[in-house]
């Protein structure tokens, strides 16, 4: 049966909500392929044909929840798992933590997804080695959390088998573990610094002010959105200079900017505290002693107007031209003799822009008006773009006196703006293409990362299954040894009994043939094993045993039978044959035991 699919299965989602509602375990953020594989394993174990049937089974049998959670929450861990990464923590990370946690400042560690506690105790040993045992007891607190209560119970006991400590350096095993009741127990005085507790990474608040956060191969079980939420909690939990240690199958480059890589090879990251920059610039001081400009000389005023680089002219309230500067005369072909003429008589009144309506608007609203980048094609020369500004003029009494008109040539700026706009469009196109490529690469990277995590998940599941098979193999080996011992013991007994002993199955085929039987009739055990008892030619009429054997196979008592014949040397003998049923451990009759006492005439 295979129920695993990449599509959303409503019945599976309903099952997850049922588990969450009834037992408080929220698996909705876990990756669906691996999660469905583990649920399917339990479906097959209980014989359910669908997720709906399995939900009904959970409602009937509450004990199944324990088996389900043990299957889902794979606790594959070990002391100094990935030894090179822990060596990097010892040599590079812990010294940096001690640089900013000086004096008697406390040191806080969080082991998230701690399983049965091996990695929490690994961190404890490294810190005890770095600080000394007294310093460790005074300064260190290690918070180890998991969602699996059963695993937390084992972690609190801190009792491990010799096999679980195989990866531990011998000197650390001798220093931090004590033999007790056939197991090895982590030292109690160091263990007091490790606090175990249940924590759901998606629902419960994180531990705070953490200097080292160990979360190894935990994120890979969650969907990307759930991973982002957990990483945000991790960022909140870490001290601004704290370190995050992930599993060898996990990376963060494309997922978040909350962390920066400290060492990618060993999957160690630091919190990205960010940079706060003030972009405001100080305002320049104004000179209080700057003199006010006052133009009192009419000649200078006229000269300044006439030599201004921008074409300008003024119109009085009667719409007659009052003045024209040199730039306006040169630009629009005007003459000094045009002063005093009605503006409407001049070409400049409507080309490059209609000025008469704009003058009316300025007079009515008494405010400047600007028309930008007006296109103008002079009779001779290249096309131009002008900014045309009209401003109201007032006399000494504040009454409207006329309008000042200025034409600023912005052709060069327009050309630059056009080129800049074209460059901007090209840049946007290139940026969009680059962004598309980046997104494709990020998508590919995420897919590769997800595949890598999925493979790591499957590897952990296979490792868990392998450990179960090893346990079953050990049990089978023990049972085989017991069976061999029992067989040897039985053979020894049969070899020592002086009476001839023959064991047959329900079809009267010979199963056992004792040494005394071989000596009595001259046939070895390998010659008669599997042969039909009544077919043997041994000097005795064995046909008389057929009915007694059948009676014994039914479980009824059968009295002894006396047979007369001769032995292998031809001497007359009298045999007394006793019958006993051969029973299994379930009291089922599986054969008959014949004990033969022979008396030979001398």
Question: How are the elements arranged and paired?
Answer:
Elements: H1 10-23, H2 32-46, H3 51-60, H4 64-72, H5 83-100, E1 107-112, H6 118-131, H7 133-139, E2 140-146, H8 149-157, E3 159-160, H9 170-176, E4 177-180, E5 183-186, H10 188-191, E6 194-198, E7 210-215, H11 224-237, E8 238-246, E9 259-263, E10 268-271, H12 298-306, E11 311-316, E12 321-324, H13 326-332, H14 355-365, E13 369-376, E14 384-394, E15 400-409, H15 411-496, E16 500-504, E17 510-513, H16 515-521, H17 525-528, H18 546-553, E18 561-566, E19 572-583, E20 589-600
Parallel strand pairs: 1-2, 1-7, 2-6, 7-8
Antiparallel strand pairs: 3-5, 4-5, 8-10, 9-10, 11-12, 11-15, 13-14, 14-15, 16-17, 16-20, 18-19, 19-20
Please give a structural write-up:
This protein is an alpha+beta fold and 602 residues long. It folds into 4 domains: 10-72, Chemotaxis Receptor Methyltransferase Cher, domain 1; 83-271, Vaccinia Virus protein VP39 (Rossmann fold); 301-409, 2-Layer Sandwich (Beta-Lactamase), CATH 3.30.450; 493-600, 2-Layer Sandwich (Beta-Lactamase). Helix content is 42%, strand content 22%. The chain has helices at 10-23, 32-46, 51-60, 64-72, 83-100, 118-131, 133-139, 149-157, 170-176, 188-191, 224-237, 298-306, 326-332, 355-365, 411-496, 515-521, 525-528, 546-553; strands at residues 107-112, 140-146, 159-160, 177-180, 183-186, 194-198, 210-215, 238-246, 259-263, 268-271, 311-316, 321-324, 369-376, 384-394, 400-409, 500-504, 510-513, 561-566, 572-583, 589-600. The strands form 4 sheets. Strands 6-2-1-7-8-10-9 form a 7-stranded mixed sheet. A 5-stranded antiparallel sheet has the order 12-11-15-14-13, with helices on both faces. It has a 5-stranded antiparallel sheet with strand order 17-16-20-19-18. Strand 9 and strand 10 form a beta hairpin. It is elongated and about 170 Å long. The protein starts with 9 loop residues before the first helix and ends with a strand. Mean pLDDT is 84; it is low at 275-296.
